[in-house]
Structures are given as structure tokens and as C-alpha cells.
Amino acid sequence: MKNVMTRAWEIAKDGAAKFGGKVKEYFAQALVMAWAEIKKGVEKLEKNFAMIETLSGSRNHKTWVAEITGTHPKFKYNREFIEAWDEWTGAKEFKLYNGKVYEVCNGGNRSYVKVENGEVEEITGGQLAEIFA
Which InterPro entries match (predicted)? Predict the structure, then answer.
């Protein structure tokens, strides 16, 4: 993704070449247009993942999130544990990506979730089994 100022100068130069005049005369409007392009790209990017917040956990009640990548002969599913995106007192935040399935242990309470269109949807063990059948 380009820097917004670099993109604004490109737009201003194109405007001056197409319509005549000085590049700096087009810059103010070009900056508005560049910000709109960047914002549109960011909004599109943000829909590729979702954030979930969990408890921080304790020694007896762990908190973690793992992507389920397939089946495992002993443990039923292969898991790849993911790092917390952000942590603060009392909570952890995890970044989950579209099209992926995760197991979430939130203070000892375990569940399965899938992410589609930036939305987290809880699924059952049966639905998870169908995904990896």
C-alpha cells in the first residue's frame, strides 16, 4: 500500500497533465482522493479478519486460541496455537482470519469457532468434524 502523500502527489500530477495548470493547484483535492483510496483499502483489509477478546486466564483456568489445521491420530485435531494480538489487565485479544477454524479456551471454557466475512461464528463439534471429514 502506498503512502497517502505519495499517492496524493501522483493524483495531482495526473490532474495537471490532463487538465493543465500547476500540480500544487490540484494537491488539496488529490489528498482527499488519496485518503479515500487508502480508507477503502483499509476497510477491505479489515474484513479479512476478526478480533476476539478472552479472559486473561489463571493457573487453573488457562486461556488460549489455536487454529485447527486438520486431524490428528491421537488428539483428534492438529492445533497451531496463536499468540495474543494484544494483552492488558484482565483480557487478551486474538486476531482470527477468514476461512479458518479455531478452538478457543476462554478461562477454561472451550469452544470451536469459524470466521467468515470478518464475523466469528461458534460451531459445534459435529460441524467441526464435517469440515475435516
Answer: Gp111 (IPR010878)
Phi (first) and psi of residue 84, to 5 degrees: -65, 135
- Answer yes or no: are the C-beta atoms of 50 and 100 closer than 8 Å: no
Alpha-carbon gap, residue 2 to 56, rounded angstroms: 37
Three-class DSSP category at 25: helix
In tens, the pLDDT along 62-100 reads: 889 999 999 999 989 999 999 987 776 668 889 899 999
Return the CA Rg of the chain: 23
Q: Find how far residue 43's CA is from the centre of its chain.
A: 11
Distance in angstroms (rounded) separating the CA atoms of residues 117 and 129: 22
For residue 92, CA distances in Å to 61, 106, 124 come to 14, 10, 23
Cell of 115: 470466521
